[in-house]
Model the fold of this input.
Amino acid sequence: MDDRTSRFDDATVRAVGKLSEAFETIERARGHLYAFHQLTGGADLCLEEAIDQLWAAGHTDLSQRLTTELLGRNVLPGRWTFQVVEEYDDTYYDVFREFVVEARRLTGGRRHSYEASLKEQRRTPGLAGHERGRG
Done:
């Protein structure tokens, strides 16, 4: 370990690293949730265009049913996708993030302390491409 991580015991660094890894997965899941939100919103806008085209083509019954039964419909009971995203953030993501911040205090507030210790263990001092770097 380098001098920035050597003052913390290996077990703590590994445990905080594992928590950080879990949070990185949550970040990816959150990104997929935002993609779901954006894709569903885009589909709703496209649906609106299809409804207009069906109406213009004389298919008024179908276009009316699509307008009243599908356009703007909740994706979950009582919720549009923006509400799903907001609830995820408020009830899960934010809580998880707060625990990660708290746990990082065990390693001096440093992010990726586990990876930093691995880098120090695996680098070849003095060789190009193996510089210690910043942080």
User: Anything to note?
Assistant: Residues 23 and 96 are 7 Å apart (CA to CA). Residues 10-56 form the longest helix (47 residues). The mean pLDDT is 91.
